[in-house]
Amino acid sequence: MLVPGLLFYLIFRYGPMFGLAIAFKDYSPFLGVLKSPWAGLKHFEKFFSNADVWRLTFNTLRLGVLQLVIEFPLTIAFAVILNEVQNMRCKKAYQTISYLPSFLSLVIICSIFKDLFSVDGVINQMIVQLGGNVIHFNGDPKFYLFIYILSDLWGGLGSGAIVYLAALSGVDQNLYEAAKLDGCSRIKMIRYISIPSIMPTIVTMFLLRVGNIIRITPDKTLLFYNDLTLETADIIGSYVYRVGITNKSYSFGSAVGLLESALAAVILIAANKICERATGSSLW
Amino acid sequence: MFDLVIHLILIIISVCVAYPILHVTAIAFSDRYAIMANEVSIFPKGFTLESFTYILEQGKVFRAFGNSVFYTVLGVFINVAMTVIMAYPLSKTDLVGRSVLMKMILFTMFFSGGTIPTYLVVKELHLLDTVWSLVLPNAVWTMDLIVMISFYQSIPGSLYEAAYLDGASEFQIVRKVAIPLSKASIASIALFYFMGHWNSYFLPMLYLFDQKKYPLQLVLRSMLLESSGTTSGASVLAETALTPTGVKNATIVLIMIPVLLVYPFAQ
Amino acid sequence: MRNKNLAKVIAPALAASLVLGACSSADSSTAPAKESPAAESAESAAEESAETENISEAADEEGNGWLVEEETTITMSFGSNYEFDENTWIFQKIKERTGIQVEPIVYPSESKDEKASAVIASGALPDIMFWSLSETEINEYGEQGAFANVLDYVDVMPNFKALILDDADMNEIYQTYTTESGKNYQIPIYRLNRDINHGNLYRADVFEELGIAPWTDTEGFYNALVALKEAYPDSYPLATSNGKKSLERWMSEFGINNADVAYDYDKQEWYIGCTSNAFKEYLDFFQKLYTEGLMDPEFLDSTVDTYNEAFLNNEAFVCNEWIGRMSALDNAAKENDANTTFSLEFGYPIGTGHYEELPQLEFWGNAVANNENTEVSMKLIDWLYSDEGSEIMTIGVEGENFEWDESGTAVYPELEGSTINIGLLEEKYGMWIEGAYLHPDRRSCYFAFTEKEQAAQDLVKELGNSKDNPKVDVAAEDTADYNLLITGLTDELSVFRANYITNASYGDAQWEEFVNKVTAEYGEKLLSMLNK
């Protein structure tokens, strides 16, 4: 039964793996992977020779960890809350509305948020109403992470919750019935039934996400940052992008990508071990 | 009391989420001057369908829409079938070589050859410029596979045992036991795959050459650039004064509509 | 030569609006005869007869004016958002006139670079690629054998030779792209640019109303903004649609053509632009504007939408933008209120008093593949440089899809009712394929200016332009390091510039620190690579 699936992985995922060599060569699309000259660790060295490489790594990790620590629990909480709604029609309505932002492209989301936090945007208008001074959110490094994560939440709560909602729907209703008979409060039911029942899902999702604290795609960063917030906002991916503008080098991008992936894999392996010890579930 | 709090929280979240969406939709229905002067909030000002007619007047939009529907339906079907068929065996902890297989699969989540090597593989298989290049190379998303596996693992083993005792074959078990029980998770991954195909731009851009095969995203984006002044669109628009923002938002609304129709079913 | 990114933005911005060819006689260009219409037609007549010579030569052999003996197919790739196939009007014409059947391969404009790279990697190189790669990539792959050395084919390219190689100035520019091995793979676009595309624009009606004289220098500019702020205290008179780009254009007005590495034509050496006194002057000026509330506080995040809104709501009155915005906004304002006095006009540069010149030759990533079809491809390229190719690619075929009217403008009967611009021509006839209009005909709609735009062109010709950098020439083995340093330097100066302008407390001390840091970290290394 596994045959078609494994075939797929072999052909389309392992087939192109020869491309990993690109990181170690001076790749030219014309010469191809085989004929491009070897470059050894040159590109890796180049990456580390950049004076800011540690700041970039720090920024990336900081963003990744914040994302994990803030967004992950909140998504679960949202799913749980949604699950508690008794009225089916209300529930569907909330769920549909929360999912709407997934239709918007990143560009739109970023322009919405920049607009929201601009000096004459809605947020500042409220601040002024309450007697405060206008804050330049968009140009202030202190608020950059806040806005970034807020936009993540805004766009991701709905879609992130889907998996947990599906898991929650599979929980045996009898458990709730029994608990009700025992006089359990709703909150207690959440704590002792809902969450433990979906713990395997939570662990799985956590492990799937944990590797990404270092592998952040720069699309959002590139749209959100500006010269004033650059030093706080710049992550590995956005730096590689800027380098690529003046000097398009597949090899350089590939090398950095390889570094990120390796680090992410290491993090995952560690996390998997910890989860195994702590909760008994793991990915392999 | 508890219910009240729940509803309150959800309403606040819903309003926060819905406001910008309504704003975007309102712009799509507003007239160009109002948009330029930023007078639109959540209701259209100077209600007009001109942004939409501008887009729909182009015949290629309908063809692209049909293409998108075809790719998405075919894609999701293959995706779900492949994912389910892989997840079931892998969920059995007693499977021979499971640990090795899982590690191999997870490895691909981190390390991949890259865009161009994958393109080369697709080319060697003569899949370029065909619908198969859009649905085969990403037939399974490892992330969704893992989710599916964890779902199957949560199905009590006793149900399987009962089926074995009845003399059922593995395939029958999948059909009659596993799938019905995991409808919710199948629906979720189907939705993810659906969104992935419907919104995809990069892969069709890369693999397709025949402009008649372009899906909706590709066509709409090309119209955006047309109308935003990167070529001569700007002067056309200067005369007709159709602000790109209106058209841009109309494309979003157009892309949204089919998904809005599908989503409730997925629930 | 600017980096490709800037060209990518300018090029599309160029490709808009209606522009009229240079008709004024007093001209600072090196070939004075070229500008006046009489001389121009004389020149083209001369060229034409040279070409007809070639054609009649060929005609003697083939009897139909074709460039090839029998019909040949050439694959041609380019980026476009419109649909093409072998029977698109332009390709029919090409087949008719040259005997070459073009098989088009179209990439979506937005992602043509990635697509082109994938196609090259797969080994399926098209015979001709237009607007697909950067010049550096072309040179790189060319050296590896992908592309043909244009200089080897000069014998079959008389028009190219006449336009570019035989013209001293053009040739000088062209040869800067020749590789160390003496080969040149580039196929540039000849004289695409008008005299000016961007400049300082202002609300002429508001200026008149408030009795402000349009500025002619920096001081006047400042005073105008102050007066505007007084009259409209809630406004920020100076707005941008893309803060960074506007800042860079103002930088060139202050005499710094590139903030990273700039060339001093007097001293004949390179220097680091952002360490010059001109840069400090520029920073101080904009810091003043920002601190006094004369400039949009969120200029770094501004977009076309915020810009439009500001101008249409009397929240801004001055900007540095693409000249087409004059008609765009004028029309938008009239839409809303037919009696409005809204009027944008083109103003003087500030700083040193010059706008920067636009390149005579544009290098947009055109190249011919090195294969069995190379000679035929080169002939087709040459045809595109010829007068016949130039007219067909950018205006059309007289009597077939256009007619001349009394004022010398091309009129298109089939497109009556629509505004003629190059996008429409591309959509309907396949003309103006990006990168393929190697020799735009000056009578085409692209050079048809509105009155205000013509005024802009005239003003700029009067003032003269400042010179752009020559092409950077760094040894091949240094290129990678050089580019990394440039990226680092650009980041550093962008951050400093933004902080200096927005922060009134920045002054001489921070400036000293910045200059020292930049010189130590980047300056010495970069200049040693350039000033060898």
Keywords:
heterotrimer; B: 267 residues; mainly alpha; MetI-like fold; 15 helices; 74% helix; globular; C: 532 residues; alpha+beta; D-Maltodextrin-Binding Protein, domain 2; 2 domains; 4-stranded mixed β-sheet; 3-stranded antiparallel β-sheet; 19 helices; 13 strands; 45% helix
* Count, helices of chain B: 15
Globally, the shape of chain B reads globular
Q: What fold name stands as the CATH topology of the largest domain in chain B?
A: MetI-like fold
CATH topology of chain A, which one? MetI-like fold
- N-to-C terminal Cα separation of chain B, in Å? 27 Å
Q: Please report the total strand number of chain B as a whole number.
A: 0
Can you describe this structure in just a few lines?
The complex is a heterotrimer of chains A (about 280), B (about 270) and C (about 525). With about 280 residues, chain A is an all-alpha fold.
Textual characterization of the structure:
- The complex is a heterotrimer of chains A (284), B (267) and C (532).
- Chain A is 70% helix and 0% strand.
- Chain A has 284 residues and is an all-alpha fold.
- Chain A has a single domain, classed as MetI-like fold.
- The longest helix of chain A is centred in the first third of the chain and has 31 residues.
- The model of chain A has no long low-confidence stretch (mean pLDDT 88).
- Chain B is mainly α.
- Chain B folds into two domains: 48 residues, no CATH class; 153 residues, MetI-like (MetI-like fold, Orthogonal Bundle).
- In chain B, 74% of the residues lie in helices and 0% in strands.
- The radius of gyration of chain B is 23 Å and the shape is globular.
- By secondary structure, chain C is α+β, with helices and mostly antiparallel strands.
- Chain C folds into two domains: 260 residues, 3-Layer(aba) Sandwich (D-Maltodextrin-Binding Protein, domain 2); 249 residues, 3-Layer(aba) Sandwich (D-Maltodextrin-Binding Protein, domain 2).
- In chain C, the strands form five sheets. A four-stranded mixed sheet of chain C has the order 2-1-3-11.
- Chains in contact: A-B, A-C, B-C.
- Chains A and B meet through helix 1, helix 4, helix 5, helix 6 and helix 8 of A and helix 1, helix 4, helix 5, helix 6 and helix 8 of B.
